[in-house]
Design goal:
two-stranded antiparallel sheet; mainly alpha; 4 strands; two-stranded antiparallel ribbon; 7 helices; 184 residues
């Protein structure tokens, strides 16, 4: 019998975002066992079958240009505020300007969704709507970073995502905390 994997372990092995795999499992696009665990081979096969060749993105230097997390090139300290020293030390970026520009884009991607969602709560928008807006803003910031990486020549023109340079961390958002801050 094949090894059964948790969602987090499956995501790590496939180098994919766990939330995206969870969404695919809920939609029935990838098989999930009754025990809540996954068979890696079955999931890989399902992912291969579910890709419409007409919508498949091109590869650049062997990397598929999709919004998946790349552990080899992903920003370290996932879940924390970007650290400028880490970007200066990156060897996958061509120069200091590219490192600085990518750092700036990731700082914006990290903080902007939460700032926007907090502003919504402050304006009286229901918590569920603010939480949904936060999630959508996290996705939108990937496109902002994609524009930066395209301008720097790190990703090809017209791809609409930042490939391995996509942001991997976003500041959390809790509408209860935002509402408490507004009440003070």
């Amino acid at each position: 019998m094949a090894e059964r994997l948790s969602l987090r372990e499956l995501a790590r092995r496939l180098d994919r975002d766990p939330s995206g795999l969870g969404r695919l499992a809920r939609k029935g696009s990838i098989p999930k066992g009754d025990d809540g665990k996954f068979d890696e081979a079955a999931v890989r096969a399902a992912l291969g079958r579910n890709v419409d060749p007409a919508r498949q993105k091109e590869t650049v230097d062997g990397l598929q240009s999709t919004p998946v997390r790349s552990t080899a090139l992903a920003r370290p300290q996932t879940g924390t505020f970007p650290d400028s020293a880490t970007y200066r030390a990156r060897t996958d970026l061509p120069d200091a300007f590219a490192a600085g520009a990518l750092y700036g884009a990731h700082v914006i991607a990290f903080a902007l969704p939460t700032a926007m969602a907090c502003a919504l709560v402050d304006a009286g928008v229901p918590a569920a709507a603010a939480t949904q807006a936060h999630a959508e803003a996290c996705e939108d910031t990937r496109f902002i970073v994609g524009d930066v990486t395209e301008a720097l020549g790190l990703t090809p023109a017209g791809v609409d995502d930042s490939g391995p340079h996509a942001p991997t961390a976003f500041q959390g958002f809790d509408p209860r905390m935002a509402a408490a801050a507004v009440a003070q």
